[in-house]
């Protein structure tokens, strides 16, 4: 399954697939605040990237206040054994804990990841559906927030040229496709 839209000269793609297998310049990781690996997407990325990723994150943590990445924040590391050259680690909100702040924090994940992609002159990035697994964010709401943030960033900055979402299954894909269709003309 795949759908695509044009956004001010760039391209937004949705695919059903494994984020760790994507060949974009970067993939985004749905990381935890401690940046030490975990389950779901985070665990899969750590396994695919190899132990060097954890070593890089340990070094990076030394520069973070309290060794923790705040919710809504993002940092970048090499991709090591991944096809992607970089991993941009984003800490999404835990839906029940963040309450009214959850939408702004989730949007911040995507904006911060795209800012890092631009700063590092990356032409493409693939996102998973951040916070919709164990963090409990309802997929339909998360899809709308993610796509609104990404489309807004692409319209303002026109980079990176390709933003892809690699989504876990057909249900998540359908939620993102519905949200994208509400925002953008097909093309």
Please describe the structure with a list of short key phrases separated by commas or semicolons.
187 residues; alpha/beta; seven-stranded mixed β-sheet; single chain; Leucine Aminopeptidase, subunit E, domain 1
Describe the secondary structure blueprint for this structure:
Layout: E1 2-7, E2 10-16, E3 26-31, H1 40-49, H2 51-61, E4 74-78, E5 86-91, H3 95-98, H4 102-119, E6 124-127, H5 139-157, E7 162-167, H6 170-183
Helix pairs in contact: 4-5, 5-6
CATH topology: Leucine Aminopeptidase, subunit E, domain 1
Number of helices: 6
Give the biggest sheet: 7 strands, mixed
- Level-1 CATH class name: Alpha Beta
Q: Considering the protein shown, what is the CATH homologous superfamily?
A: Leucine Aminopeptidase, subunit E, domain 1
Helix content: 40-55%
- Gross morphology is globular
Beta strands, count: 7
Write down the Rg: 15 Å
Backbone structural class: alpha/beta
For the record, the count of structural domains works out to 1
Question: Which second-level CATH architecture applies?
Answer: 3-Layer(aba) Sandwich
Spatial order of the strands forming the largest sheet? 1-2-7-6-3-5-4
One letter per element, helices H and strands E, the order comes to EEEHHEEHHEHEH
Query: pLDDT average, as an integer?
Result: 96
Low-pLDDT parts are none
Estimate what percentage of residues fall within beta strands.
15-25%
Distance between the termini: 16 Å
